[in-house]
Design a protein that fits this description.
The chain is mainly alpha-helical. It is 66% helix and 3% strand. The longest helix has 20 residues.
Length: 199
């Protein structure tokens, strides 16, 4: 299998996504463009999973990191929802970098958790992946990505929305609709947090 074929091959589990991201993290500095090249420009769901996973790690403590991940999630999901064949990102995003060591450490911390999710997945609630319901997960990801920069000052809201995007993406990757329903839990927590701040 050549490098391009490997990039475009279909991934079916969080562990496979994590392995691919960990390969990229071996660099001294990892640019968004490196991640896009590693997964392939047509791999919308795995590419959506990467920023969603990162925003629930300690990396979310970096100023504006959650907002940047939200912008990425929005751009990826809105293009997927629009039916594009290949993802396009502006060059200023493609050039943004993070330390490979820092990225690798963050991935290592959540690896046991993602492996547990893989072990408990199976095909459930398949109706969620057919019309008209199949448009709801990418539509929700688009909305949550747009909200993340706005809500960054609300404690834990970005990480909770990132968790919701991760669960929705995971459900689409594995065709396990249960995780799409579980994504309602962090969304409910965000609504509660916003209400607590405003009232």
């Amino acid at each position: 299998m050549n490098n391009k074929d490997r990039q475009e091959e279909e991934l079916h589990s969080l562990s496979e996504v994590m392995d691919r991201a960990a390969d990229v993290a071996r660099r001294d500095q990892v640019a968004v463009g490196n991640i896009l090249d590693a997964f392939g420009h047509a791999s919308f769901v795995p590419l959506l999973l990467v920023p969603a996973l990162l925003v629930v790690t300690p990396l979310s403590g970096i100023p504006a990191f959650s907002s940047f991940c939200g912008v990425l999630i929005f751009l990826i999901s809105v293009q997927w929802l629009a039916g594009r064949d290949h993802l396009w990102l502006p060059q200023w995003i493609m050039r943004r970098t993070i330390s490979g060591d820092r990225l690798g450490d963050a991935l290592h911390k959540i690896r046991p958790w993602t492996a547990r999710l893989d072990r408990h997945t199976r095909k459930r609630f398949g109706f969620l992946f057919h019309r008209p319901f199949r448009f709801l997960p990418p539509l929700a990801c688009t909305l949550f990505g747009a909200l993340m920069p706005v809500l960054e000052l609300v404690p834990f809201s970005s990480s909770l929305l990132g968790a919701a995007v991760m669960l929705l993406s995971f459900s689409m990757l594995t065709r396990d609709g249960l995780y799409a329903l579980i994504a309602l839990v962090p969304v409910g927590a965000v609504i509660w947090a916003i209400t607590a701040v405003l009232l």
